[in-house]
């Protein structure tokens, strides 16, 4: 049998890789991809805890599905924003997007 | 353990299992071996059928539709034409264009074939004869179809060709658009059978779902035709517009794989339609003689495949804007309405104790009439608007014609 | 080591390596394709966790929809398909150190807790029963009806918002074409 | 449940191998005489102009966006459909409400002209 800690270690790995991507990538689309990685790590954690906790209680799966919905909405709106900024400023580098900073 | 003729497929599995266990293999390993063997047989039989027989069949029937003879040189009735084609494609030079992304370029055709072969894992051929009776079978079909979309975008991007990329983007936009009504309408068989498993859906069809939900069946059929990229929706390879679509840079057997995947896919939607709406292997006597069930299944599948070909050789290609309008302004709203109406009416019918089939038939009839009425009203409004635009124009022309003369 | 553990290690390795490739690969499209492989690996892990519904949902939503959306966005935001210039910003070394420390701390904490390593999978109810239960839970007034309906409002808001943000670009495009 | 997935896990790689075999056979059997013209990008006999990048329409993105949202909607409805036979009427109506809210989104996209192919 697979111990729960294996799943947690893997999910933690995915999360930190995603975090590194968010902190270090320049391209805004790449940052969004890294956020998707982090969200996936969260979902993996939720499902693992659901499976090793009380699988008859379905709430873990419900949480996971809600996170799916949030991830999809976030990707749709985030990418639309990036496209819009790209149209105006011809850049997708996160450090150049500083309209709100002065 | 004797051979039970009433349950031949189950018996064969049991025989093989006991044989392997007697050889001293552990139980889990035996099930893995059996799965691999079964998957190999399934993929081999279906791919050979698709690659050799279906291509011959399609060319032959297509020729008859167009008053030609079709392939008739290689073997009896040209039956070995597919093999000859395969040998020819194998011997063709395989060109990878300069600037292509080699790895992605080579993986794309493999994924295209895999996405179609994978669909057959959940198709029940006969009682007891199914690859994997997943309880999420319907969604599995949708999921594997998504991999096919990915292969298109990979092929188009890695070719380093404008037309390939443009073709891939159009194709993907089309595939994902038509996935929406397809997924929504799949809710109807799921609801009626109370399960997403393909076996449960077949078992639930005491009355074929085609009779219970004809509108849903229609939407599913149209949108899966579009998923395959068959005429009238073959914008994927509109020669006049985008040369040849996303697979333009492919040659030799890699192109052959895209072709096999396409032919195989249109056969597969015949099988899926059969399972979801035509009762799968069900028919008189199939409960007692499962072999008969297999015959029914194959017959129904080929009938649906014939209809796909019939449509292909009858209708002209639609324009891409017409196609998108068809999807987003007709199929998707219709699918939404069908799902809601079926859900409410079926529940009402059950609670009031009304007979199920007539109620559903009446509902679908009403839906068809309403849709036709709406379309008629829309067409009238459109015609009036066009006439309204034309009226002053006609006056101007008349005035202009009168002007110089007077 | 049981067969299950071997499968887990294989899937985990694929997931982990492709996740690393997502953040380091210089070509954005490649990063997107690596992301697809990562997501497929996680879907495989869901199968191992006996959550087949979530596994297919992962493939349908993430690979079939979100990954396609991201690849479209990559294609739309580039003058050329080849990337040039740095992909990492000037802070990448610091970010690497921080994330490595964070990972070390997380792994240490997980290994510290003996109940996590000892936890074994309890016997699970029939999976189709669970699926029907999930459906019931989503529309049951006493359970998750509120998140269910709020999710639809969230999706509606996302749809309207994203179209609203993206629409002016289409208008601008038309103007450019007319000029 | 897991034993059913073994078949899927076997079938998908077998599908890959079956597709790879003829391609590899082609690589071995077919002639291989590449030259610059043969390897150049296929474009109606004209020299390739510019990069592969073309200004893609934002419309492609809009379609993908609407697709993602409705895909999620369908996913939410599948468990509801599976449990359909065990639901009471008001629970079914909640699902219908869910669909109606998102149908409003489709209507918005329609009114805004986001569904037109420009």
Describe what this molecule looks like in 3D.
Chain A contains 3 helices and no strands. Chain A is mainly α. Chain A has one domain: Helix Hairpins (Orthogonal Bundle), CATH 1.10.287.3510. The radius of gyration of chain A is 17 Å and the shape is elongated. The longest helix of chain B has 50 residues, at 356-405. The N and C termini of chain B lie far apart (105 Å). Chain B has 2 domains: 8-91, no CATH class; 97-340, no CATH class. Chain C is built from 7 helices and no strands. Chain D has a single domain (2-111), classed as Methane Monooxygenase Hydroxylase, Chain G, domain 1, CATH 1.20.58. Chain D has 4 helices and no strands. In chain D, helix 3 runs antiparallel to helix 4 (89-111). The longest helix of chain D is centred in the first third of the chain and has 28 residues, at 2-29. The mean pLDDT of chain D is 79. Chains in contact: A-C, A-D, B-C, B-D, C-D. At the B-D interface, helix 2, helix 3, helix 4, helix 5 and helix 6 of B face helix 1, helix 2, helix 3 and helix 4 of D.
Q: Main attributes?
A:
heterotetramer; B: mainly alpha; 73% helix; globular; D: mainly alpha; Methane Monooxygenase Hydroxylase, Chain G, domain 1
Summarize the structure.
Chain C is mostly helical and 179 residues long.
Shape of chain A: elongated
Distance between the termini of chain A: 56 Å
Strand content of chain D: under 5%
Shape of chain D: flat
- Contiguous uncertain segments of 5+ residues of chain A: none
Question: Helical content of chain D, roughly?
Answer: 55-70%
Number of helical segments with 4 or more residues of chain A: 3
Quote the CATH topology of chain D.
Answer: Methane Monooxygenase Hydroxylase, Chain G, domain 1
Q: In sequence order, what are the helices and strands of chain A, one letter per element?
A: HHH
**CATH homologous superfamily annotation of chain D:** NADH:ubiquinone/plastoquinone oxidoreductase, chain 3
Question: Secondary structure elements and their pairing?
Answer:
The complex is a heterotetramer of chains A (102), B (406), C (179) and D (118).
Chain A: H1 4-24, H2 28-52, H3 59-89
Helix pairs in contact in A: 1-2, 2-3
Chain C: H1 3-24, H2 28-48, H3 52-76, H4 92-112, H5 114-118, H6 127-139, H7 145-178
Chain D: H1 2-29, H2 36-39, H3 58-82, H4 89-111
Helix pairs in contact in D: 3-4
